[in-house]
C-alpha cells in the first residue's frame, strides 16, 4: 500500500498508509480463490463474509461489498486500519500456504473509504420500522459499546450510549494516533451508529452522575458495560514521581483527544524533551514513541524487557517505527529513575535481561542479568506497561462480581454478568485486548440481550 516516506511522515500527524487506489484493490481482490471452506471467515472474530465482499469488489459492485461488510461489522474503516489481520483472517487464508495471504484488511479499508464518500448504506437500515419500545443503556463508546449499540438499534431497541469523555469512540478516539487512525474515520463510523437511531450522551460518568442501578430503575430494561481498561499501570520503582514521566494514557490523550500536537491552536500543551524513552513493547508503546518523534524529540528509544519476537505490538507498526528512526533497546528493564536536584527525570538505571523458561503467558520469562546495570539517559519518559479497568463502576454497582485483576466477570459467550439485567464486554472483561475482540463481545452481548428481553421479561 502506498505510504508517506519515513522522512516526510515524521514531520506530520497525517495518515501514514494512503490506501489502495482502485486498480490495486481490484488486482488484490482478484487473487482470492473463493475457497469453499472459507478459512478466513473462521479467523474473523465477527465472522465477516470475507469471500462475499471480495467477490463484490471483483464484480465492481461496491455498494454490495459495503452491504456485506456492514452486515457483520459496523466499523469497517477502523478495523481495516488497526485490526491485527496478520494473526486472524489473513493468518488462516489459504494463499498464505504458498505466499502472501490476501490483504483482507487493506481491502476492507478500501471498501469502507469508498463508502465514506458515496454513503451507499445511509438509510439502508431502518430500525425505526421495527421499534420494540424497550430501552437499553450502553456505558462506554469504545468499539464494544458502539457495536453493541448498533446491533441493538438494528434490532429495534431504543439505545442510549453514556460516555464519560467529551467525544465518542473510546481508545479509537483518545488512544490510537491520527497517523494510524484518522479521527474523521472514527467520527464517520460513530455517526453511522448514531444514524441507526442511537442517542449519545457525552460527559456522562456512570458511577458519578448516575449509577447502573439508577439506569435500571429509570426505565432501561438492560445495561451493557463497555467501559474498557483505561487506568494506567506503573512500574512502582524508585523515582517514578519525577517530573517528565508520563503514563502513556495521559500522553496519548493529550496528543490525540486534546490535539496537543496542534497547540496553541488547541489549548492543551504537551511538554516533550529532546531525549524520550518509552517503556513497554505493545501498540501503546510504539504509538507513544512515534508521537514523541512527531513532536520533534531528537532521539526516541523504546525499551522492552523481552526480545522482539515477544513484542505484542503489530509487526507492521514496529517496522514503520523502525523506518522512522525509533531505536528499540530489547532485553532491557528499568531498575530506578534518576533525577536532578530540581526533581526532573534525567535517566533510567536499567538491567540487561535474559530469557528464561516460559511463564504463565507462555512467553519466555525475562530474567535479570546480575551486575548488568547501566544508565539510559532521558529527559522525558513515557510508561506504557498496560492498563487495568477503572474501579468506578465496580465500586458503585451492587451484586457485580469482579475478578482479582479488577475486570468484570461475565459469561464469555453472552457477556452476562452476575447482576440481573447487566451485560459486559470488551477490555472491561478481558483486560487490555484488541478492537475486534471488543467488537465481538459487543455483538455477542447484543444478541444475548435481545434474547433475554424477548424471552424472559
Ligand atoms: P475502550 O475503547 O477503552 O472504550 C471504553 C469507553 O468507556 C471510553 O470511551 C471511556 O471513556 C468510557 N468509560 C469508561 N468508564 C466510564 C464510565 N464510568 N462512564 C461512562 N463512560 C465510561 N487494538 C487493536 O486491535 N489494534 C491496534 O492497533 C491497537 N492499538 C492500540 C493503541 C493504543 C494507544 C491503545 C491504548 C490501545 C490499542 N488497541 C489496539 C487496543 C484497543 O484499542 C482496545 O482493546 C479497545 O479499544 C477496547 O475497546 P472497549 O470498547 O472495550 O474499550
Ligand atoms: Fe479468499 Fe483467502 Fe478467504 Fe480463500 S482464505 S476465500 S483465498 S480470503
Task: Describe the protein.
Helix content is 35%, strand content 17%. The model has no long low-confidence stretch (mean pLDDT 95). α4 (50-58) packs across α8 (104-118) and α14 (283-294) packs parallel to α15 (315-324). It has helices at residues 6-9, 22-29, 39-42, 50-58, 62-72, 76-82, 89-92, 104-118, 143-154, 171-174, 183-195, 212-217, 248-257, 283-294, 315-324, 392-396, 427-430, 435-455; strands at residues 135-139, 158-162, 199-201, 220-225, 231-232, 245-247, 275-279, 299-304, 327-330, 332-339, 345-358, 364-368, 374-377, 380-383, 387-388, 422-424. It is globular and about 65 Å long. The longest helix has 21 residues, at 435-455. It has 3 domains: 6-122, Alpha-helical ferredoxin (Fumarate Reductase Iron-sulfur Protein, Chain B, domain 2, Orthogonal Bundle), CATH 1.10.1060; 135-230 and 388-456, FAD/NAD(P)-binding domain (3-Layer(bba) Sandwich), CATH 3.50.50.60; 234-385, FAD/NAD(P)-binding domain (3-Layer(bba) Sandwich), CATH 3.50.50.60. The chain starts with 5 loop residues before the first helix and ends with a helix. The protein is α/β, with parallel strands linked by helices. It is built from 18 helices and 16 strands. The site of flavin-adenine dinucleotide has 43 residues, from α9, α14, α16, α17 and α18.
Amino acid at each position: 500500500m502506498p505510504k508517506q516516506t519515513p522522512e516526510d511522515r515524521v514531520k506530520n500527524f497525517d495518515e501514514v498508509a494512503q490506501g489502495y487506489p482502485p486498480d490495486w484493490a481490484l488486482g488484490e481482490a482478484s487473487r482470492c480463490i473463493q475457497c469453499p471452506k472459507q478459512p478466513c471467515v473462521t479467523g474473523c472474530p465477527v465472522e465477516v463474509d470475507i469471500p462475499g465482499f471480495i467477490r463484490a469488489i471483483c464484480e465492481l459492485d461496491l455498494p454490495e461489498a459495503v452491504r456485506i461488510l456492514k452486515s457483520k461489522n459496523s466499523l469497517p474503516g477502523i478495523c481495516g486500519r488497526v485490526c491485527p489481520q496478520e494473526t486472524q483472517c489473513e493468518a488462516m487464508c489459504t494463499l498464505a500456504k504458498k505466499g502472501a495471504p490476501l490483504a483482507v484488511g487493506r481491502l476492507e479499508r478500501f471498501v469502507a473509504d469508498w463508502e465514506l464518500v458515496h454513503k451507499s448504506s445511509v438509510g439502508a437500515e431502518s430500525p425505526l420500522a421495527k421499534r420494540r419500545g424497550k430501552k437499553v443503556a450502553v456505558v462506554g463508546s469504545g468499539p464494544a459499546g458502539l457495536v453493541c449499540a448498533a446491533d441493538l438499534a438494528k434490532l429495534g431497541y431504543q439505545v442510549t450510549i453514556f460516555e464519560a469523555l467529551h467525544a465518542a469512540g473510546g481508545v479509537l478516539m483518545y488512544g490510537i494516533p491520527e497517523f494510524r487512525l484518522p479521527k474523521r474515520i472514527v467520527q464517520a463510523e460513530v455517526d453511522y451508529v448514531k444514524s441507526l437511531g442511537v442517542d449519545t450522551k457525552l460527559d456522562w460518568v456512570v458511577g458519578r452522575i448516575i449509577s447502573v442501578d439508577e439506569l435500571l430503575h429509570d426505565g432501561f430494561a438492560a445495561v451493557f458495560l463497555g467501559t474498557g481498561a483505561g487506568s494506567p499501570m506503573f512500574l512502582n520503582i524508585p523515582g517514578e514521581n519525577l517530573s517528565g514521566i508520563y503514563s502513556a494514557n495521559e500522553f496519548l490523550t493529550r496528543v490525540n483527544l486534546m490535539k496537543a500536537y496542534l497547540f496553541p491552536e488547541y489549548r492543551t500543551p504537551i511538554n516533550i524533551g529532546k531525549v524520550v524513552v518509552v517503556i513497554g513493547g505493545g501498540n501503546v508503546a510504539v504509538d507513544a514513541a512515534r508521537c514523541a518523534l512527531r513532536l520533534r524529540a531528537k532521539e526516541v528509544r523504546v525499551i522492552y524487557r523481552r526480545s522482539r519476537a515477544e513484542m505484542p505490538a503489530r509487526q507492521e507498526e514496529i517496522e514503520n517505527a523502525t523506518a522512522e528512526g525509533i531505536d528499540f533497546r530489547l532485553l532491557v528493564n528499568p531498575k530506578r529513575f534518576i533525577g536532578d536536584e530540581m526533581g526532573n527525570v534525567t535517566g533510567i538505571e536499567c538491567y540487561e535481561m535474559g530469557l528464561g523458561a516460559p511463564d504463565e503467558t507462555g512467553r519466555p520469562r525475562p530474567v535479570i542479568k546480575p551486575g548488568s546495570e547501566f544508565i539510559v539517559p532521558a529527559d522525558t519518559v513515557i510508561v506504557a506497561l498496560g492498563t487495568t479497568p477503572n474501579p468506578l463502576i465496580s465500586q458503585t454497582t451492587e451484586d457485580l462480581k469482579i475478578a482479582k485483576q479488577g475486570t468484570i466477570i461475565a459469561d464469555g459467550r453472552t457477556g452476562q454478568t452476575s447482576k440481573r439485567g447487566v451485560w459486559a464486554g470488551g477490555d472491561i472483561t478481558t483486560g487490555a485486548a484488541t478492537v475486534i475482540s471488543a467488537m465481538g463481545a459487543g455483538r455477542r452481548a447484543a444478541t444475548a440481550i435481545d434474547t433475554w428481553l424477548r424471552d424472559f421479561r
